[in-house]
Structure formats: C-alpha cells, structure tokens
C-alpha cells in the first residue's frame, strides 16, 4: 500500500491536501517555474531519441522561446510513423503502457499513445485530487477514506479511463463496483448496471463517468424504472438502503430518487455533457458533478474546485501554450498561416485553442488536440487561486459558423434540445447551404410515443438559441428568417447506425455518430435504414 | 453567450485608450448629459464608510473608483471587475497615476460567473454595462456576492414598452448595427446590436429585480435628448 493510503489511514488531512490540491495555492510565477523546469527536463529525456531528433534537431533548445520558435505546432499526423505501430525503439524510454483513443476515419482506426510509469501514476494522483475536490466544502477538507466505494462508468483498458481506474486502485487500494477485473469483461451497459446493483449492497461513495449517464439514470429512477423485485433485495444492507430511501422520499412527499438510497460524497465527470446535466445530477444524486478536462494525449490536465466554477490546470502534467481565437480562425481560413501562441501567464479572458507538450516523459510536442477553452477569469478569489480559470468551450472542428455572425457549439444545441422538453433518442447537427445561405440543420430521432411536431421543436430550439446568442436574432433581422431547420430521423436511426458500426468493427468512440458536423456518408446512414 | 463576450472583449479592447472621451461624447449625443454628471447621479445614494468593500462590475478604465476617491467618498477597497483586460490595463495606469492602485485590486473575469465567495460585498455598482450582459444571470451573481443588507446601484439605458414589439426592436437593432458600423467598427456594431436585446423597460427591470430577490427597489427614469433613444435609468436596491 502506498504512502498516500497511509496518510489517509492516519487522518493526515493537511499533508494530503497539500500534496494533491496544493496546485490551487500556487502563484502564477510558481506555476510557470514548474512548467519551465519540467520542460527543460523533457529536453534531456528527448535528446538521444529518434523522435526527439526528428522534432528538435540535433541541438536541444536552450530556452523556452527557442523551443517555441524552432518546433512547429504538431498534430497526431506528425507522430503516425512513430506511434501507430508502437515503435518503442524510436522513443526515449522503454516498456511503455499504450493507451488507445479514436482515430481518423480512412487514415488510422485508432491512435496509440505511450504512457510512462510516471504518467500512469499521475493519472491516479489526479483522480485522487478529483475525489477530494468533489467532496470537500472548504480548503483542507478531506473526506476520503479507504473503504469508500468507487463506481467507474467509463471505458476499460486500454482506454485512458481504464488506466485511470487502475492507477487509482494502485494508489489507494479502494474497492470498485464492479471490481475492475470483472468490469473489464462486461460491456458498458452491463458494467453500469452491475455497479449500481453491487452498490446497493456495498454503497457507492464516488462516481466517475459521464454526467449524462447519471442524469438519464436519475430520470429512469424517478419514472419508476429502478428495477424489479429480486431475492437479493432481502439482504440486510440492500433492505436497509431501500427502507431508508422509501422513508426519505415519503417524508419529502415525492418519488424515490437515487439520493435517497446512496449518499454520494462526490461525482466526477468530464466532457461536454457535464454542464447540460449539472442540475439534473445534483437533483437526482445530491451532488453536483465536478468537471475535469482530460484526454488520452494530454492526461488529466485540469479540474474544477469545490465552488464548481472554472477549471484550474495542473502545472506538472503538460507544458501549455494557447492560440488566441482570432489566430485560430486565421489558421482555419489559411492552413499555411502559423498562429502565434501565448503562455499561461500571458492570458487574458477569452477563447483559446490549447496547445500542449507532454511532461513526465511523454512524447508529444506543441500538440494541437483541437479543443477550444474559454478562460473566464485570471484568478478565482473564492477559492484563493491565482491561476487562470477556464471552461471547456468546444472542439475546434465542431463549431457551426453561420454567415460569420453566430457560432454554435455542441453545448448550445444540446442545451436547446433539453430546453425543448422533447423526448429524443439522440441528435446530430450540421451547417448546410439552403437557397444560397448558411443554415443550421438539426436531425433528431424521437423516443417512441413523442408527439411534438417538428415545427414546435424548431420554434423552441430557435427561441433557446436566440436567448443564448442574441446575435442569432440580430442576424435574422439582417439576413432574413429560416436559418434553422429540424428534420425528424426515422425511428431506430441511431441504434441501426451503431449496430452497423459495431458490425464493421468501429472503434468504441466511433460507434455513435458525432453530434456536430456529421459527414454526408454518416447522415446518409442515419436517414436510410435499409 | 461566449461568442458575444468574445466580441465585447474585442470591441472594448480597441476602445480602451479613448473610452472615457467616447462615453462622454455618446452620452451627450443621446442623453444630453456629461459622463461625470451621470456618474454623480448614480452614486448620489451611496452611503459608504471606510469599512465598506465595494465591487465595481464592468469597471472598465476605473472611472468609478477614481470618481469615489477624488470626491473623498470613503471605502475600504473597491474591487474592479472587468472581462476586458485592455480596459483594466488602462484603468491600472490611471489608478497608479493617482496613487490609489493598492486600494483598487482588479479582477479580470466575467460578471456572469463572478469568481467571488457568497456575501462578501457591502455595495455592488454597475454603470452602463448591463446591456452587454444577460441581466437575470448578472443579478443572480450580484445577489450572491452581496452581504445581507448590501446595496446595489445600477445605471443603464431603459427601453420604452414599445421596444417589446419585435418589429420596433428589429428596426432598432438594424439601426444600431449600421450606426456603430460606420461610426466605429464591426466588433462594436455586433456588440451594440446584441445589446439591444438586453435593454429592458422600466417595468421589466422592476420585475427582474424583484424576482432576483432584491428589496427596497427604487427606479429613477431620466429623459434622453433624442425621442428615439432609450432613456437613462438608475436602479437602487437592497439584498434583504
């Protein structure tokens, strides 16, 4: 068992806080010093390797400025020759763990990323930080204990979330429902179901996964879909939990909700759906979700704090640069244009494309993952943090730009669908040209029994989008109406698509069509069920 | 909303060095009033002491902190909040010249997601900026950071009830867009066109303040110089 679990056992809360949440107390100068020191360590790590020489040349940079000047911005395409075939002999170290993520259709089915031991350990440490922050009420408030039960509603090995689960277990030794070895043999839905079923007996203290899963489960629970009677319910812990749930809900004169059964200490989520389901998760589960920013290429890079506002970057996971939004747009228009980047201490509030260089022995240099972040403030007085605070804004490719006047991201459209109260299976949206002008075309599959007309949805979604983007209304006044169209997809469109993708051996991340800007062949498959 | 914010940042960064002069010209043109006179009217109800912590929302080039300081109105500190870093930088320069920058810490952040703890401010001021924000969200943030019994002072343009008519509103938006496009630039034109949607009538303001949980709401409507321009509105209220 690690030193950390000893600290938890001994109740050394101050030491645990300072070790895992100390980054929140750094000054901007201290943050930058850590960034620069670790970047220089990377130069040493890369210098004799083939991949290092490929990007850096024979002479290692002498300064951060030299590194930024001489090394071009990169994408995964630049690493394909080294990483797709897992050519460890070209990399600085050996015996990597390899994490998988979705690739680019037509080019490579999946991306592989090498993880050093330190990167793997850092996953678990960041997960522990997330657990602490998701359950604390003030700085230094560490509620975690070694018998806490964790439900991981995420992908298994060799996906990064699988490594995060294993690393967390290595660090803390806390129980998972279902146990990781068992969970990895199950598909996603069975894993979640088994987790909650076992959680009836053992309890659940922390959930890590998608906010939409918790939101939808809460809805099902409220509608009375919490499960049928089984003999397992007669086990004393299960019975106790059920009785407690019934009493709590009766006292409050409402249907039983998951929060009546489980007292979750923390909920940790990542991804676009966190903001959409934030209120629902809190209502059903009794805790708002703590949002993180993570990727296979960059690891767990940032987390919210106990006030659930902006996210704060960890200084020791990656070296960060940011492309200002205007530069990002210029580069989108002209791919030959080299956008300028800013460092963390040069930021002002606004939207930026993130660029990162792996620390801790990783191999990506000045890597463009394509995400846009919205820096909402340069500090957060409430939590006493002096590091810029951000929210995830959008994937760069996912923005729907209408006549250069309004830009919609996935969150905008998702929120608009939620506000319409339409019972839908799923949706996808893209920019199309109609009668010579750009419009947003939304494609949605109804749940069985839904009776809303397409016109009603169009009106509701349009009203929501205008509320979020007053420019959309203004644009209508200047360029005319009918800038949005809704098409109802045939029943079963999404499940048919997913079955076909599964049969074709698609990667886990490509089983579902994208929410934003689907290509013609994807849309054709959704609209044609033959 | 983020897109609009980005636009506002671009427009105000460009305006920062000439902001006060521009405000004065525009207030004179539309309302027939000088900027300092208008600010004096807004702050006339402020009874602060040297123990009061004041938040100046959308502080811009720090005109309000400078005004309070030069008029010897006491305060412990004024926190200047603005999303446009360029405006704060200009404000910092002016505060330093007056030797009061230590009394006026600046925070560059969105007023719709204020990075402050609950119930810490005695007074919140916001002068001529609410039309660039979603007002309900702004009021939610203000009431969150005010102490119980704390005071809010707001000043902005208030539309007449005719503005509710979508045809009238549409026409004004187009007019605003083209006016500021020719007078200023594309970012300002977009920012001001979006702002029309956030200009509310006297009655609507009262309703929004009440629903946000404020009490002792006082609204003062002034008269603009041009019949078609929105009238200046000063709002004072308390957090119960």
In a nutshell, what does this entry contain?
The complex is a heterodimer of chains A (530) and B (240). Chain A has 530 residues and is α/β, with parallel strands linked by helices.
Our count of helices of chain B gives: 9
- Percent of residues in helices of chain A: 40-55%
Task: Give, in spatial order, the strands making up the sheet with the most strands of chain B.
Answer: 3-2-1-4-5-7-6
What kind of assembly state do the chains in view correspond to?
A: heterodimer
Radius of gyration of chain B: 17 Å
Low-pLDDT stretches of chain B are none
Mean pLDDT of chain B: 88
SSE-based structural type of chain B: alpha/beta
Q: What is the straight-line distance between the termini of chain B?
A: 30 Å
The largest pleated sheet of chain A is described as:
6 strands, mixed
Q: Let me know the average pLDDT of chain A.
A: 90
Q: Would you spell out the secondary-structure blueprint of this structure?
A:
The complex is a heterodimer of chains A (530) and B (240).
Chain A: H1 3-9, H2 13-21, H3 28-46, H4 50-56, H5 64-70, H6 80-83, E1 97-104, E2 108-115, H7 117-135, E3 150-153, H8 160-172, H9 180-183, H10 188-202, E4 206-209, H11 211-222, H12 236-251, H13 258-261, E5 266-270, H14 273-285, E6 289-295, E7 299-304, E8 311-313, E9 318-324, H15 325-333, E10 350-358, E11 367-377, E12 389-395, E13 400-402, E14 406-408, H16 410-420, E15 424-434, E16 437-446, H17 454-468, H18 470-479, E17 484-488, H19 493-503, H20 520-527
Parallel strand pairs in A: 3-4, 4-5, 5-6, 16-17
Antiparallel strand pairs in A: 1-2, 6-7, 7-8, 9-10, 10-11, 11-12, 13-14, 15-16
Chain B: H1 2-15, H2 19-31, H3 35-43, E1 53-57, H4 63-70, E2 77-82, H5 85-97, E3 106-108, E4 121-127, H6 135-145, E5 146-158, H7 166-183, H8 186-196, H9 202-211, E6 215-221, E7 231-238
Parallel strand pairs in B: 1-2, 1-4, 2-3, 4-5
Antiparallel strand pairs in B: 5-7, 6-7
Helix pairs in contact in B: 1-8, 7-8
């Amino acid at each position: 068992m690690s030193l950390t679990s000893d600290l938890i056992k001994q109740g050394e809360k101050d030491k645990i806080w300072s070790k895992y949440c100390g980054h929140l107390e750094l000054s901007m100068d201290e943050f930058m010093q850590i960034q620069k020191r670790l970047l220089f360590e990377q130069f040493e790590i890369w210098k004799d390797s083939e991949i290092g020489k490929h990007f850096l040349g024979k002479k290692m940079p002498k300064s951060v400025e030299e590194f930024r000047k001489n090394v071009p911005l990169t994408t995964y395409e630049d690493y394909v020759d080294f990483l797709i075939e897992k050519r460890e002999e070209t990399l600085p170290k050996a015996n990597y763990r390899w994490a998988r993520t979705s690739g680019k259709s037509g080019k490579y089915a999946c991306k592989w990323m090498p993880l050093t031991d330190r990167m793997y350990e850092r996953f678990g440490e960041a997960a522990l930080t997330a657990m602490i922050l998701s359950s604390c009420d003030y700085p230094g408030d560490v509620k975690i204990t070694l018998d806490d039960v964790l439900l991981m509603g995420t992908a298994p090995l060799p996906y990064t979330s699988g490594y995060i689960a294993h690393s967390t277990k290595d660090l803390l030794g806390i129980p998972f429902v279902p146990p990781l070895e068992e969970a990895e043999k199950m598909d996603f839905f069975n894993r979640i179901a088994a987790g909650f079923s076992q959680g009836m007996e053992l309890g659940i203290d922390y959930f890590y996964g998608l906010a939409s899963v918790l939101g939808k489960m809460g809805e099902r629970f409220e509608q009375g879909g919490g499960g049928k009677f089984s003999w397992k319910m007669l086990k004393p812990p299960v019975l106790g939990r059920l009785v407690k749930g019934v009493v709590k809900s009766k006292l409050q004169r409402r249907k039983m909700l998951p929060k009546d059964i489980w007292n979750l200490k923390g909920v940790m989520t990542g991804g676009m759906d966190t903001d959409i389901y934030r209120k629902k998760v809190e209502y059903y589960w009794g805790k708002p979700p703590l949002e993180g920013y993570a990727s296979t290429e960059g690891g767990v890079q940032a987390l919210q704090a106990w006030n659930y506002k902006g996210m704060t970057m960890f200084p020791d996971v990656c070296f960060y640069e940011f492309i200002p939004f205007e530069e990002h747009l210029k580069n989108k228009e002209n791919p030959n244009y080299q956008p300028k980047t800013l460092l963390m201490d040069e930021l002002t509030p606004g939207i930026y494309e993130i660029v990162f260089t792996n620390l801790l022995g990783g191999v990506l240099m000045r890597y463009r993952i394509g995400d846009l972040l919205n820096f909402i403030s340069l500090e957060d007085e409430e939590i006493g943090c002096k590091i810029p605070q951000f929210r995830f804004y959008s994937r760069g490719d996912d923005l729907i730009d209408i006549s250069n006047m309004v830009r919609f991201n996935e969150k905008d459209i998702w929120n608009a669908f939620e506000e319409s109260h339409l019972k839908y299976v799923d949706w996808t949206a893209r920019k199309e040209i109609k009668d010579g002008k750009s419009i947003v075309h939304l494609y949605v599959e109804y749940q069985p029994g839904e009776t809303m007309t397409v016109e009603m949805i169009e009106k509701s979604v349009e009203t929501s989008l205008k509320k979020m983007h007053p420019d959309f209304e203004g644009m209508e006044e200047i360029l005319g109406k009918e800038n949005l169209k809704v098409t109802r997809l045939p029943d079963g469109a999404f499940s048919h698509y997913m079955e076909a993708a599964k049969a074709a051996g698609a990667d886990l991340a490509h089983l579902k069509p994208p929410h934003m800007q689907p290509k013609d062949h994807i849309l054709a498959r959704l609209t044609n069920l033959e | 909303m983020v897109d609009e914010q980005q636009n506002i940042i671009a427009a105000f960064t460009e305006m920062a060095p000439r902001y006060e002069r521009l405000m004065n010209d525009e207030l004179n043109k539309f309302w027939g009033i000088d900027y300092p006179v208008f600010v004096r009217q807004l702050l006339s109800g402020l009874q602060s002491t040297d123990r009061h912590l004041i938040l100046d929302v959308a502080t811009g080039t720090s005109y309000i902190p400078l005004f309070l300081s030069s008029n010897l109105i006491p305060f412990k500190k004024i926190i200047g909040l603005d999303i446009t870093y360029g405006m704060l930088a200009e404000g910092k320069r002016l505060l330093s010249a007056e030797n009061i920058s230590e009394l006026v810490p600046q925070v560059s952040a969105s007023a719709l997601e204020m990075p402050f703890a609950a119930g810490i401010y005695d007074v919140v001021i916001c002068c001529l900026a609410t039309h660039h924000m979603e007002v309900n969200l702004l009021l939610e943030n203000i009431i969150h950071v005010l102490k119980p019994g704390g005071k809010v002072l707001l000043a902005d343009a208030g539309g007449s009830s005719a503005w509710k008519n979508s045809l009238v509103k549409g026409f004004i938006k187009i007019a605003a867009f083209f006016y500021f496009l020719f007078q200023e630039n594309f970012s300002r034109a977009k920012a001001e066109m979006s702002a029309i949607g956030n200009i509310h009538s006297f009655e609507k303001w009262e309703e929004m303040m009440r629903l946000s949980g404020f009490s002792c709401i006082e609204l003062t409507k002034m008269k603009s110089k041009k019949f078609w321009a929105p009238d200046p509105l000063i709002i004072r209220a308390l957090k119960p």
